[in-house]
Design goal:
The structure holds 2 protein chains of 2 kinds. Chain A is 81% helix and 0% strand. Chain A is built from 4 helices and no strands. By secondary structure, chain B is mainly α. In chain B, 60% of the residues lie in helices and 6% in strands. Chain B contains 5 helices and 2 strands, in the order βααααβα. In chain B, helix 2 packs across helix 3. Chain B starts with a strand and ends with a helix. In chain B, 29% of the residues are buried. Classes of the chains: A mainly alpha, B mainly alpha. At the A-B interface, helix 3 of A face helix 2 and helix 3 of B.
C-alpha cells in the first residue's frame, strides 16, 4: 500500500494529477455528449449506433471514478474516513430518495420523471461534495 | 481517548502542519486527532510516538484513566 501524503509536495502532486485527470474526463464527456446528442437528434441513426453513443456518453464517468480512486489512495486515514462518511451520506440520500419516489410512482400515481436515471450519478456526486463540508466540520 | 499532542507540540514549537509533515498526514488530520474527534490507527499512533520519542501510553490516554487522574 502506498504511503499516505500530507500537505507537502507529494500531496500537491497528487492533487494536480487529480485535477488534470478530472479535467480530461470532463472534456471528453462534453465532446462525446455534444457529438452524441447531435447525431441522435439530427441524423436519426440506427439503434446499434444509438446504443454505442449512449455507452460512449457514459464512459467518461468511468474515467472520473478512476481519477477519484487515484486521489483516494493518496489521502491519509482520517481524510479517507471523511470521504467514506460523505459517500455513505450521498448513497443514503440519493438511494432513499429514488427508492421512495419509486414507491410513490407505483402506489400513488406520481408522474414518472423523464430521464430520471441520468440524474442519479450527478446527484450523488453533488450530495457527496456537499456532505464532505459537513462531515469535515464534525471533526473540527 | 485523550491525548497530549497539543502540549508536546508546543514544547517543540511545532505547528500542526509541522507534525503532519513528520508523520505523513494532513494538518486537518492532526487537528482531528489533537481535539480527540478522531482516534488514529495503531500504526499512526506508533508514528506519532516515534516522532516525539515517547511510548504511546505517554501520549494517548484512555478516557477512564484520564478522568481518574483528574
Amino acid at each position: 500500500m502506498s504511503e499516505p501524503v500530507c500537505d507537502t509536495g507529494a500531496s500537491i502532486q497528487v492533487a494536480r494529477q487529480y485535477t488534470r485527470d478530472m479535467s480530461i474526463a470532463a472534456l471528453i464527456y462534453v465532446v462525446v455528449l455534444v457529438g452524441s446528442v447531435f447525431v441522435v437528434r439530427r441524423l436519426d441513426p440506427p439503434q446499434w449506433v444509438a446504443i454505442g453513443l449512449a455507452l460512449a456518453s457514459a464512459a467518461p464517468a468511468l474515467l472520473m471514478m478512476r481519477a477519484y480512486l487515484r486521489r483516494l489512495r493518496g489521502l491519509d486515514e482520517f481524510q479517507r474516513q471523511v470521504q467514506l462518511e460523505s459517500m455513505l451520506a450521498a448513497a443514503a440520500v440519493i438511494g432513499f430518495a429514488s427508492f421512495t419516489y419509486g414507491f410513490l410512482e407505483s402506489f400513488a400515481g406520481f408522474p414518472a420523471i423523464d430521464g430520471a436515471l441520468l440524474w442519479v450519478f450527478p446527484a450523488m456526486c453533488f450530495v457527496w461534495g456537499v456532505a464532505q463540508i459537513f462531515v469535515a466540520r464534525r471533526y473540527e | 481517548m485523550r491525548n497530549r499532542l497539543k502540549v508536546l507540540r508546543a514544547e517543540r514549537d511545532w505547528s500542526q502542519a509541522d507534525l503532519g509533515d513528520r508523520i505523513g498526514v494532513s494538518r486537518q488530520s492532526v487537528n482531528a486527532i489533537e481535539t480527540g474527534k478522531y482516534d488514529p490507527s495503531l500504526p499512526l499512533a506508533f508514528k506519532i510516538a516515534d516522532v516525539f520519542g515517547l511510548p504511546i501510553e505517554a501520549i494517548f490516554l484512555r478516557e477512564e484513566v484520564a478522568q481518574a487522574a483528574e
